[in-house]
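Much of our argument rests on the idea that a fold can be written as discrete symbols. The amino acid sequence and the backbone structure tokens for this protein are reproduced below:

___
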Amino acid sequence: MSGFDRDYILEKLSEIEDEENLLTTVVKKGEYGDDTPEEVKDLAEAVGTIVMADYVGAGKNGYETMGVYSFMPLNDEETFEVLSVNIVLSDAVDEIGIYDMYKIINMINNRLLIGAFMISDDEGTLAYKSNICISKELDNDNALAFATEMLIEALGEVNLWIDILMAYNDGDKDADACINTIKDIDSEE
């Protein structure tokens, strides 16, 4: 049994997001509105509770993204819980330049502290994903503090790199320009 309450952590994370004037929705297993998409219902059925957060203003160019947080189902023998953080940057990846996008993503992923950018298996969605392990021995306050710190780090990674990824995806920059921007960021550090 966890020392902390998973639903409490997710509810508090949604409140933190609300303080930033972002739209968040908490969806619990079996508690759906008429307009709840089937994939959201399926996820809630699998994991119990999810938080969906619309982010406005990501990166320097103010992109809109959608975050989905949930605890992954694990067996009781595990000594930790896994908070899954998924942030969708775009649901329309340009298939013509997909291999250059993979190259750009790989360069960026080699520079990340946590998580990774990815393209979905069907090559239709560009997203950031991070799984955060939280010890079951932590109480609610300490688990929330750790989850909040890791979520802020994940959002920081998205904010740092989204402009490059979306500039290529939207056709505003070619692959070489994006790669040079990544190298310029390296030289600034």
Summary: The chain is about 40% helix and 25% strand.
